[in-house]
Amino acid sequence: MTSVTLASPHPNVVVERDGHVVTVTLDRPESKNGCTGDMWVALGAVFQDIRFSGARAVVLTGAGGEFCSGADLSGAGAPAEGEAGSGSGGPSGSMLDSMRVLADVVLSIHTCPVPVVAKVDGLCVGAGLGLALAGDLTWCSDRSRFSAIFAKRGLSLDFGTSWLLRQRLPVHKAKELALTAKIVSGPEAFALGLVNAVVPADELDAAVAEVVATIAGGPPIALQSTKRELDNAAASSLAHALEAEALAQSVNVQTEDMREALLAWFERRPAEFKGR
User: Fold this and answer.
1) DSSP string of 17-63, one letter each residue
2) If residue 15 lies in a helix (H) or strand (E), which one and from where to where?
3) Per the confidence metrics, is the pTM higher than 0.85?
4) Most buried of the four, 16, 125, 241, 267, by CB within 10 Å?
């Protein structure tokens, strides 16, 4: 299929669709894709739209060989590494209001029922790190660089990183990254368990395309339930998890996709899921 550019609420947030896959690109290379307040709001709105778009997978990435340098607080478009807070064009209320707007953005990405794969090349720091971790999976290049850089700016963690880091790392490793604000390379991030895979930069597009094609080719109703089950597992008991599984399977067994899966297995061919 041919990629189609979709309407976006902000010129620096580019949204494209190719079949069942939506790609969301931060496109502000002069700031290494540092986000203004308006860009954060637009990003949240884009993911709200994706919920009901029929998409089966999302790629979240940055343009120009960089992922995201965090929030641009300059108000003049200069590069910024890290801290969230209100950038240019952000809410006109208090700092607390601004942070709550950012919270809505994080939640719109993390709770999106469609699986989200972050494709990280280059810089991924501060709120940019939170942005990558808000997705479900992270593939990065060998030249990528990650940092919870907030401490270097006199700030504590934000953009959900206090929670998201703990979902990926043991507490002592999460504290090491947060308290030192150290920069780790792509290979180091993979060794820590912060990302799913690290590949040479010229292979990143193909590697992400492969995993996204696998997800998009799966049964979307079942996969969305699986995503919810795993996201909720840390805060639920085994009994609650078992009940959630039972409810999900009671839906799955009524779908055309499950019947197609059984028929494809019987006929020894790949299944063609319709999301019904």
Assistant:
1) EETTEEEEEE--GGGTTPBPHHHHHHHHHHHHHHHTS--SEEEEEES
2) strand 13-18
3) yes
4) 125
